[in-house]
TrEMBL record:
Region (Disordered): 426-446, 738-761
Protein name per its UniProtKB record: AP-2 complex subunit alpha-2
SMART domains xrefs: Alpha_adaptinC2
UniProt source species: Rhynchospora pubera
Localization (cell): Endomembrane system
Length: 769
């Protein structure tokens, strides 16, 4: 590519690579996408690469994450003003189903493309707000800072941006990043919407104030500044609104955080000075011009050669005229635009931290980010050193099949630690003197032998055992079958751990591992099931059925009928909580391996505490609420015995894991705990829950628990739920999934569990077939 080749030759090269990315073989598709990305630096071929845009977008849905990453890099590099809207819209759609490991990178690249190639600023604001709405957890602060800078520097954009922020705040449970940007925009420019219905200063204040109990400290600071701005812009002054805002300021004057406390004190004093308030809280000035922080963030990240090609091309390209022309309403050439346009200026960037790509290592096995795949370099993997088993295992990654060869890992991938693809080790190695050496090995695919190829010796042995086999099968019940496939983890323990955190292993047996990654927002939840085939043979007849309780609405996406060898598939679930209940949804999961059907009924960790949001209350907020909830059924008290003995700080950590914020200082007795949370459901919306635990230092096996809320059903269910996690109940292991014999099937690869064939009727039946 570095040679000055003729354009005709380069055209033919791109055409051949276009055929590569359309074949079924994943390794060929990967190489085609990678080298097409490298060719972006060659002049006069980008228009030819655009002809394959539809096929490249299709590669975003490929089962192999390394191919999806390559397709993302290629789309990022080939984007320009002619196809920016189509590509950014595709990336926003893909964001709904993208795995968590890719969402931060995907959000960053979508934001950069929207900034550089926006046809107009209103479209840019729409894209970034959609980005925050769809993937707020993965949108860095630099992205919403950038929107604020654009809006500040463009007067014509300010009413539109404020109106869009007002619309997003109306949605149920907006993300906290959305609350931040909306609070800033409405505080600065909400007065421009005063004539619109639902946009009066008082209505904007009430809308913002609804969010303050559920947000973090840094967001509270932005909200207080927004209240002060709203108060300043309210003309003529509204005494009722002023009194409401001053009450908020007074409440936060004694807040534990110094920044919040200082803002509240200063805003309260400024609010009394009338005209002085307008001078101090004047609108933000225009920002000076600087390099885009987002582009610098992408450039500073450690990436491989193909990705560098896309990023280098991005840095060389000019930004969209919509985002970089000066504030002069006339273009640089002096021509007057024919249609009204927004007055536009260049915008600065913010200082950002470098994005380091780290390599996650689990149990001695390196998890290499697929974005660093280099098929040409093959390095032998060393035998892993023995390591201690982790106390709380996370879902381990699965290598999708086939995966291009990978070089040794280099430092850092910020996205791997979110969940990454499940790394699944092979089945348990056989024991005995002929066992193969341990270590991460990928055996070649085992093909089923045709029936005609069964040796005569095996057939004779099978016939000799025919009568014994028939008798054994005649008296064997489902529970007594010796070829039952047992889980290799304690299912009850795994479920309990997932009740306290949002990612981990739900189920695992010698052939499959099911991992869970979840995110929760108010009464909505999204779980992703990671189904990883650990074997070198496919798992067939895969079925998953959700049995939801009455208080949950659960929608499961389609589950593939077959999981390829050593591959991972993802199945998202959408959850809506209707009301409080301790009932648990059940996943009825089954698959077929060889001649056995494995059935497992697994409890899903969509439990009561997932819909709690911890909240810290001051004494002035807590005690009026506590006294207002006088007695049963809104306030219930119970002496709980048989409690697991634990120190007070350990109990506080347990409550934090249950999404209950332990607030010190509310109870004078140092042996007591007070915790608060907000419970969300579709029927009750946000409901405050207050908990008090009184312990006896001389007897840690009993305590008195008092729980109060505004809903009797919630009070009872939450009390019982917390009690279940406090009482030392022995964990009973649920019934194991059972393998049931099915009709004759072709000879399958040997099971990892290899008992003697003479003691195993299933093995003898396989020998006959």
């Amino acid at each position: 590519m570095h040679l000055d080749a003729e354009k005709e030759m380069m055209t033919q090269c791109v055409a051949l690579l276009g055929k590569f990315i359309a074949v079924r073989e994943p390794n060929i598709r990967y190489l085609g996408l990678e080298n097409m990305t490298r060719m972006l630096l060659v002049t006069d071929v980008q228009d030819i690469i655009k002809r394959h845009q539809a096929q490249i977008i299709t590669s975003l849905k490929d089962p192999d994450i390394s191919i999806r990453r390559r397709a993302l890099d290629l789309l990022y590099g080939m984007c320009d003003v002619t196809n920016a809207k189509d590509i950014v819209e595709e990336l926003l759609q893909y964001l709904n189903t993208a795995e968590f490991a890719m969402r931060e990178e995907l959000s960053l690249k979508a934001a950069i493309l929207a900034e550089k190639f926006a046809p107009d600023l209103s479209w840019y604001v729409d894209v970034i707000l959609q980005l925050i709405d769809k993937a707020g957890d993965f949108v860095s602060d630099d992205i919403w800072y950038r929107v604020v800078q654009f809006v500040t520097n463009n007067d014509d954009l300010q009413p539109y941006a404020a109106l869009k922020a007002r619309e997003y705040l109306d949605k149920p449970a907006p993300h906290e990043t959305m609350v931040k940007i909306s609070a800033y925009l409405l505080g600065e420019y909400g007065h421009l919407l005063a004539r619109r219905p639902g946009c009066s200063p008082k209505e904007l204040f009430l809308l913002l104030n609804e969010k303050i109990p559920t947000v973090a400290t840094n967001t509270i600071a932005i909200l207080l500044s927004s209240y002060a701005k709203i108060l300043m812009h309210t003309q003529p002054p509204d005494p009722e609104l002023q009194e409401q805002i001053l009450i908020i300021f007074r409440k936060y004057e004694s807040y534990i955080d110094v920044e919040i406390q200082q803002r509240a004190v200063e805003y309260f004093e400024l609010s009394k000075k009338g005209p002085t308030l307008a001078d101090v809280l004047a609108e933000m000035p225009k920002f000076p011009e600087r390099q885009s922080a987002l582009l610098r963030k992408a450039e500073d990240a450690e990436v491989d050669t193909a990705e560098q090609s896309a990023i280098k091309l991005r840095s060389q390209q000019q930004s969209s005229n919509a985002l970089v022309v000066s504030s002069d309403p006339h273009p640089a050439n002096g021509a007057v635009p024919l249609t009204p346009q927004l007055s536009l200026v260049r915008i600065p960037s913010q200082t950002v931290e470098e994005v380091d790509h780290e390599v996650a290592t689990e149990n001695g096995l390196a998890v290499i980010p697929e974005s660093k795949v280099e098929p040409e370099q093959v390095q032998p993997e060393p035998e892993p050193e023995p390591v201690a088993a982790p106390i709380q295992p996370e879902p381990v990654a699965v290598n999708t099949e086939p995966v291009p060869a990978k070089p040794p890992p280099s430092a850092g991938d910020l996205l791997v630690d979110l969940l990454g693809p499940l790394m699944i080790e092979g089945p348990p190695a056989p024991t005995g003197p002929e066992a193969p050496p341990s270590g991460p090995q990928v055996p070649p695919p085992v093909q089923a032998a045709p029936v005609a190829a069964v040796s005569e010796r095996n057939l004779n042995q099978g016939l000799d055992l025919g009568q014994e086999l028939a008798g054994a099968l005649a008296i064997t019940t489902l529970e007594d079958e010796t070829n039952s496939i047992q889980p290799v983890v304690n299912l009850a323990e795994k479920f309990h751990l997932l009740c306290l955190k949002d990612s981990g292993v739900l189920y695992e047996d010698p052939y499959i591992q099911i991992g869970v990654k979840a995110e929760w927002r108010a009464h909505h939840g999204r779980l992703v099931l990671f189904l990883g085939n650990k074997n070198t043979a496919p798992l067939a007849s895969v079925q998953a059925l959700i049995l939801p309780p009455a208080h949950l609405q659960i929608e499961l996406s389609s589950v593939p009928d077959t999981i390829p060898p050593r591959a991972q598939v993802q199945c998202p679930l959408e959850v809506i909580n209707l009301r409080a209940s301790r009932d648990v949804a059940v996943l009825d999961f089954s698959y077929k391996f060889g001649t056995a059907v494995v059935d497992a009924k697994l409890r899903l960790p969509a439990v009561l505490n997932k819909f709690l949001q911890p909240i810290a209350l001051t004494p002035e907020e807590f005690f009026p609420q506590w006294k207002a909830l006088a007695g049963p059924p809104l306030k219930l008290q119970e002496v709980v015995r048989g409690v697991k003995p634990m120190p007070l700080h350990e109990m506080a950590n347990l409550f934090m894991s249950l999404h209950l914020a332990v607030t010190p200082g509310l109870d004078a007795n140092p042996n007591n705990l007070v915790a608060c949370a907000t419970f969300y459901s579709e029927t009750t919306r946000a409901m405050l829950c207050l908990v008090r635990i009184e312990t006896d230092p001389s007897d840690r096996t009993q305590l008195r628990m008092t729980l109060a809320s505004g809903d009797p059903s919630l009070t009872f269910e939450l009390k019982e739920f917390i009690k279940e996690h406090l009482i030392n109940i022995p964990m009973a292991v649920p019934s194991s999934p059972v393998a049931r014999p099915v009709g004759p099937a072709p000879v399958q690869p040997q099971s990892p569990q290899t008992p003697s064939r003479y003691n195993d009727p299933g093995a003898m039946l396989a020998g006959l077939l």
